[in-house]
C-alpha cells in the first residue's frame, strides 16, 4: 500500500481546491487521495458553521433579531425568549444564598412609597439598658430603641440620613467591652475619638414617636411607636424619569409606576425577610401591574414577620395598625398607660425557728406582706395629685409641678386580675391545649407555695421612676414598717415640699402592660385598628409558610423558647430549694428557740424592695424622719443656673 499524503486542515476562511469527483454520493470508486480531500472539505465546512454560530448571538434588548442562542446545542425562536428569560430570573431570585455583589447593591429609597403606621411590640427588658437611646452616650448594654432602629434599617423599612462619623452598621454590638471599643462618647465634636464611630440614632424623615420610656431592666408587653416606613404601594415616577421612559416609548404618554413583583419579593427575602429588590425585574414589573389596584393590607409588606425575623427573641412585634389617625402621636395620643409590678408573698425567705415566727408590732411575720394594708395605701394614690415626693425629679424639664392623674391603683392576685386585657376565649383555648400550668404560676394551695401578686396602676402619664417609688412605699406598708397614712403625708406637698431620701423598688418586676388610644376619653378602650400576628387579614401579605403567630419563626414559637428556658431554670432551682430544705435532721428549723420563747434575741431589720431577697438595713428609720431632698423649685433653679454658667463658659463670658 502506498503512503497516503497528509493534507493540513483548511482554516475557517479557506476552501479546499482539491478536485471533486463527478458522483459525490458514491464513495466506493474514490481513491485514497480523493477520500482524504473530501473529508478535509467537509471538516472545513463544519468549522466555518461552528464559527458563525459562536458569533451569531443577540442581546435581550435586540428586538429585531430572529433568534438567540440556547445553551450550546442550537437555536430557539424569538417568541420563546421572554419565557426563558423570566424562568432564568425566577431561578436566580429563589436562591437562598445571594451573591455578595447583590447584597451590596445600593438601595434607592426614593424608588418606593412610604406610609405612616403604628407598631405594638413587647420586650423583656432584663438585658437592655432601658428603652430610650441618647445620642452621645454609650451604654454598657444596648437600648431597646437602638435594637429597633437597626432592625428597621436592616429591613430597609427606614432609610434616614446619617451624619459623617456615625455608625452605619445594622448589626447590634453586645457586651460592654465590645461597645466601649467600637463607639465614642461625648456631647461635643471635640470629644469624639476618630478611631471609633458615634452611635447616633437618626429618625430623619421617619415621623417617629414613642409611647413610653421604660427604665433599665423594665419590660413592656404593650409598647407602641409611630413611624413612617417603606411601603409596597406603587408610586408615580419622578417627572424626569417619566420623560426618559416616554422618549423610549416613542413619545407615547403613559403613566409609569413601580410595583414589587413576586419575583422581586422572593429575591429580596434573605435571612431576615426583605432586602433590596432585583433591579433587572423592574421594567417588566412596571408594564405588568400599571393598572393593578393596591389593597393597603393584603398587598402590603408583612411588617410583623419582617421585623420578627431580625429582632432578638426577647423583643417581639405583636401587631401593626395600617391607618392611625392623621394627628396620631404615640406619646401625646395615648390617654392611658397601664403598669404592673409583680411580687410574691412571702416576699423573701422567712427565718426559721423562733426568730422567724416572731411577729412585729403590726402582727406580720417576717418575710410576709400585709396585702390588705397595701391595698388601702394603693387606693390613696388614685386621683389628681402632685407626685413630687413619689418620683425622681428631672430638673432639665423645668416642670412647674408634678401633677399626674392616676385612674386606677390596686394590689391583686395575679391569676385573679381582671385588668389584664386578655380576650375571654384565651383561657378556654389554653385549657384545651393543656397550657393551664403556664397561666396558673404562683397559685397557692394550702400555703404550699408563695402567692404571686401584682400592683396594678393606670394613669394618663407617669413621672420618672414614679411607679417604682410608689411600690417602694407600698412594700414598707406591707411589712408593717409604715402605716397607709404615709401616702397622705407624701402627697401633702405644702407640709412636705421636699422628698424624703428613701430607696425606690427594684426594676426587674415592672412591666409597661398596655397603652390605650381611645376615641372617647370617658371610656378608656383602645380604638386603634390593630392587626395582630396570625389574624386573617394579615395572611395574604405573608411570604412565609406559617401564619406569623404559630409555626417556625412565629411569635408564639419564639416566645415559647424564651418561656421554656426560664421555666426549666425555675423547675431546677425550685427542686434544688426543696431538696436543700428537706435535708438533715431538721434541727436548724428549731434552732434559735430560747427558754423564754416570747423574747428571742433582737436582730437587724430586713427591708424588701422588690428584688430577689431582702437586705439588712439595721435599725429602721421611718420615711418622714429621713433627710429631705431639695424642693422642686430649688432643683429647677439650681439646674437653670448651672446651664447658664455652662453657656457663658462656652461663649467666653467671665
TrEMBL record:
GO MF terms, alphabetically ordered: RNA binding; tRNA pseudouridine(38/39) synthase activity
Q: Where is the composition biased (Basic residues)?
A: 77-95
As recorded in Swiss-Prot or TrEMBL, the protein's gene is named DEG1
Q: Where is the Pseudouridine synthase I TruA alpha/beta domain?
A: 377-518
Q: Which organism is it from?
A: Knufia peltigerae
Q: Which Pfam families match?
A: PseudoU_synth_1
- Where is the sequence biased in composition, kind Pro residues? 1-12
Taken from the UniProt entry, a GO cellular component term is: nucleus
Enzyme class comes to isomerase
Tell me if Nuclease is a UniProt keyword of this record.
Answer: no
Which GO BP terms, alphabetically? mRNA pseudouridine synthesis; tRNA pseudouridine synthesis
Q: Which Gene3D superfamilies match?
A: Pseudouridine synthase I, catalytic domain, C-terminal subdomain (3.30.70.660), Pseudouridine synthase I, catalytic domain, N-terminal subdomain (3.30.70.580)
Could you tell me which residues belong to the region Disordered? 1-32, 57-109, 232-271, 587-609
List the keywords (alphabetical).
Isomerase, tRNA processing
Q: Where is the composition biased (Basic and acidic residues)?
A: 233-244, 251-262
In the record, the note on similarity to other proteins reads:
Belongs to the tRNA pseudouridine synthase TruA family.
**Name of the molecule in the record:** Pseudouridine synthase deg1
Enzyme Commission number(s) from the entry: 5.4.99.45
Amino acid at each position: 500500500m502506498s503512503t497516503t499524503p497528509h493534507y493540513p486542515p483548511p482554516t475557517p476562511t479557506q476552501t479546499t481546491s482539491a478536485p471533486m469527483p463527478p458522483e459525490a454520493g458514491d464513495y466506493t470508486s474514490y481513491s485514497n487521495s480523493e477520500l482524504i480531500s473530501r473529508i478535509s472539505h467537509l471538516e472545513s465546512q463544519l468549522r466555518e458553521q461552528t464559527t458563525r454560530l459562536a458569533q451569531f448571538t443577540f442581546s435581550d434588548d435586540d428586538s429585531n433579531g430572529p433568534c438567540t442562542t440556547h445553551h450550546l446545542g442550537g437555536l430557539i425562536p424569538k417568541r420563546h425568549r421572554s419565557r426563558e428569560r423570566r424562568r432564568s430570573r425566577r431561578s436566580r431570585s429563589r436562591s437562598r444564598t445571594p451573591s455578595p455583589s447583590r447584597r451590596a447593591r445600593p438601595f434607592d429609597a426614593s424608588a418606593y412609597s412610604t406610609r405612616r403606621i403604628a407598631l405594638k411590640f413587647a420586650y423583656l427588658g432584663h438585658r437592655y439598658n432601658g428603652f430610650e437611646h441618647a445620642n452621645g452616650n454609650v451604654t454598657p448594654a444596648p437600648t431597646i430603641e437602638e435594637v429597633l432602629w437597626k432592625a428597621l434599617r436592616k429591613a430597609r423599612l427606614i432609610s434616614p440620613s446619617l451624619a459623617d462619623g456615625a455608625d452605619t452598621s445594622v448589626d447590634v454590638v453586645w457586651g460592654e467591652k465590645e461597645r466601649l471599643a467600637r463607639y465614642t462618647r461625648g456631647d461635643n465634636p471635640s470629644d469624639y475619638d476618630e478611631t471609633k464611630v458615634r452611635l447616633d440614632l437618626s429618625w430623619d424623615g421617619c415621623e417617629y414617636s414613642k409611647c413610653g420610656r421604660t427604665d433599665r431592666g423594665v419590660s413592656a408587653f404593650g409598647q407602641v411607636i409611630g413611624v413612617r416606613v417603606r411601603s409596597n404601594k406603587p408610586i408615580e415616577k419622578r417627572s424626569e424619569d417619566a420623560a426618559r421612559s416616554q422618549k423610549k416609548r416613542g413619545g407615547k404618554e403613559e403613566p409609569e409606576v413601580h410595583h414589587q413583583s413576586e419575583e422581586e419579593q422572593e429575591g429580596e427575602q434573605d435571612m431576615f425577610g426583605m432586602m433590596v429588590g432585583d433591579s433587572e425585574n423592574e421594567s417588566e414589573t412596571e408594564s405588568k401591574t400599571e393598572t393593578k389596584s393596591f389593597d393597603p393590607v393584603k398587598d402590603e409588606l408583612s411588617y410583623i414577620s419582617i421585623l420578627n425575623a431580625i429582632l432578638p427573641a426577647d423583643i417581639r412585634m405583636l401587631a401593626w395598625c395600617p391607618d392611625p389617625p392623621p394627628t396620631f402621636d404615640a406619646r401625646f395620643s395615648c390617654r392611658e398607660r397601664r403598669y404592673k409590678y409583680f411580687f410574691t408573698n412571702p416576699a423573701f425567705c422567712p427565718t426559721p425557728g423562733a426568730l422567724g415566727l416572731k411577729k412585729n408590732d403590726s402582727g406580720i411575720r417576717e418575710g410576709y406582706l400585709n396585702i390588705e394594708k397595701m391595698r388601702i395605701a394603693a387606693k390613696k394614690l388614685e386621683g389628681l395629685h402632685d407626685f413630687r415626693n413619689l418620683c425622681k425629679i428631672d430638673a432639665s424639664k423645668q416642670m412647674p409641678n408634678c401633677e399626674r392623674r392616676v385612674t386606677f391603683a390596686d394590689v391583686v392576685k395575679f391569676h385573679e386580675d381582671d385588668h389584664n386585657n386578655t380576650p375571654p376565649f384565651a383561657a378556654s383555648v389554653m385549657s384545651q391545649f393543656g397550657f393551664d400550668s403556664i397561666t396558673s404560676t404562683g397559685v397557692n394551695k394550702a400555703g404550699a407555695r408563695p402567692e404571686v401578686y401584682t400592683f396594678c396602676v393606670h394613669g394618663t402619664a407617669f413621672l420618672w421612676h414614679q411607679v417604682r417609688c410608689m411600690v417602694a412605699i407600698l412594700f414598707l406598708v406591707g411589712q408593717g414598717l409604715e402605716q397607709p397614712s404615709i401616702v397622705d403625708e407624701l402627697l401633702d406637698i405644702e407640709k412636705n415640699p421636699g422628698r424624703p431620701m428613701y430607696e425606690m423598688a427594684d426594676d426587674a418586676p415592672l412591666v409597661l402592660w398596655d397603652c390605650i388610644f381611645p376615641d372617647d376619653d370617658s371610656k378608656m378602650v383602645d380604638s386603634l385598628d390593630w392587626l395582630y400576628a396570625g389574624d386573617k387579614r394579615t395572611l395574604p401579605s405573608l411570604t412565609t409558610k406559617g401564619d406569623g403567630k404559630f409555626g417556625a419563626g412565629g411569635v408564639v414559637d419564639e416566645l415559647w423558647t424564651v418561656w421554656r428556658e426560664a421555666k426549666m431554670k425555675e423547675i431546677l432551682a425550685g427542686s434544688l430549694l426543696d431538696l436543700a430544705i428537706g435535708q438533715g435532721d431538721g434541727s436548724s428549723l428549731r434552732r434559735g428557740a430560747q427558754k423564754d420563747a416570747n423574747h428571742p434575741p433582737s436582730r437587724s431589720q430586713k427591708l424588701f424592695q422588690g428584688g430577689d431577697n431582702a437586705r439588712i438595713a439595721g435599725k429602721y428609720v421611718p420615711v418622714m424622719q429621713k433627710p429631705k431632698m431639695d424642693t422642686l423649685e430649688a432643683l429647677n433653679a439650681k439646674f437653670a443656673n448651672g446651664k447658664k454658667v455652662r453657656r457663658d463658659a462656652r461663649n467666653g463670658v467671665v
